[in-house]
UniProtKB/TrEMBL annotation:
The keyword Cell inner membrane does not apply. The lineage of its organism: Eukaryota, Viridiplantae, Streptophyta, Embryophyta, Tracheophyta. The keyword Amino-acid biosynthesis does not apply. Keywords: Calcium. This is Calcium-binding protein CML21. Gene3D superfamilies: EF-hand. One of its GO terms (molecular function) is calcium ion binding. Residues 48-83, 84-119, 176-211, 212-247 form the EF-hand domain. SMART domains: EFh. Pfam families: EF-hand_7. Signal peptide: none annotated.
Amino acid sequence: MGGVSGKFESPETKLEAKMVEAMQRRASKGTAIKSFNSIILKFPKIDVSLRNCRAIFEQFDEDSNGAIDPEELKNCLHKLGVCFTEEEINDLFKACDINQDMGIKFNEFIVLLCLVYLLKDNATATEAVSLIFTVCFVFEVLCFIIYPTCHCLGDGMGFSLCLSKKSKMGVPNLEATFETLVDAFVLLDKNKDGYVSKNEMVQAISESGEHSSGPIATKRFEEMDWDKNGAVSFKEFLFAFTTWVGIEDDGDDE
């Protein structure tokens, strides 16, 4: 299976623990992606899909300074009737503010959306309502922004029917993109422990037929291992991936 020698430190937060558990469960189902090269071939399509999140991001960024601060996140959730506790909002913010500069940039916002996608199928009974509501909220905002005359915002089943119709008309299929990202991580996580080690990265690239797999894998791994602890979490992988496909944190795509 690939590998890691020894054990990584336990997740530092409840959110990270949930991410690891969710990824381990997802890994048990396998991946549709066969090689690291096939991930690279998907970069252009993923890039386009993720950039379509810009409209949602701009609605959150009330002062248009290119970053969502804690108060903006709180205000937007409040205006749209999403009931989160102060602790839940703070945890969500801290998890995605990887630079710890008190501002969620566009690439960090994409990570936030993808983490919600990963966690939605791993919720306990008490967490399910909150997470499902969050997922619905995200896609309701997307629907409303692209189709401002739509009257289904917050309309439960009516919204679901509308979203289904809009998807056929070209609304970005974010779920498919997020699923591809999850699949990509599962491909790299050979021992299915919820993290990617350097050895696993070398193995994945070697299996793609790269003759210089060692140096390439080392470079890619260093780009992913944000905290330099030798273990890449799904969150760190997502941050690196946004860079790989060409999405920066300061509005370069505008």
